Description:
This is DMT family transporter. It is a multi-pass membrane protein. It is found in: Cell membrane. Residues 10-140, 154-290 form the EamA domain. 78% of the residues lie in helices and 0% in strands. It is mainly alpha-helical and 303 residues long. It has one domain (3-118, 152-258). The protein is globular.
Amino acid sequence: MNKNTLAAGALVLSTVAWAGLFFVGKATLSTLDPVWFTLVRYGVASLILLGLVRLAGPVRWHELKAHLGRITWLGLLGYALFGVLVFTGLQHSVPSHGAVIMATMPVTAMVLRWALDRQQLQWWAAAVLALTLGGVTLVSGVLLHPAGGASTIAGDLTAFAGTVGWVFYTRGQATLPQLSVLEYTAFTALMAVPAMVLFALVATALGWSHVPTLAGLAHAAPAMAYTVLFATVFASLAFNKGVRQLGAAQGIVFINLVPVSALIMSAARGVTPGPTEIVGALMVVAALMLQATLSARTAQVAR
């Protein structure tokens, strides 16, 4: 089995783990608000990741010190911003919507390559973008939603803003090639925690957030175990490993599996998605598959 196949497998597993997180996280938000949920999640995960770095060999603190600013900034974008905004959005939306919002990341990455890297968009890029946005519109219920139900646009837009942070985090890995995948994952998580603590304290003092009770933490423990071990430590390492091997542009395309997995999980739980949700999700997945196929062909022609 070649390295590219292993990388693809790692990316698939990471996206499946993230799909499950939307269901687990939605239930956990009843006892932990998004701010404290994110702090507990990454606070514990960063310690585990740092322990894994130590098991792999000496911790290269000098590399952390040498690139402290960039590592901290990427950690804030990929963990703090992403975690708080996505789960704040989830409070006002549903798991399947959050999964589809995550699936817009490849298109966001494509737009950023055009805007920031001055990489010319291919002829099919506009069609892919339009198809994706149309699918997200249907899933979010901007135009259509179940009778008596409320549109989730506010929550979905909040979650989308969080995903932009993860796209920047994914792009940032290429700027720190001297760090191993494990070091990049651990150091960025570790350096994001102090800002999370400060934000949690300020948000609590202002009444935007509430300190969880011991009973609440105990109740959320099983869900947090899944969140920390599988949806954070394992998924982040697997995703970053796949991106390191395949590159950010191709690696992030695998995010399109998140809504597929989420819809399957939702149906298995007895909550059948509505027709507009199914059509919207299929539009997003179709757009991302089209992007992956055509971008690969473009790359082959360029060679």
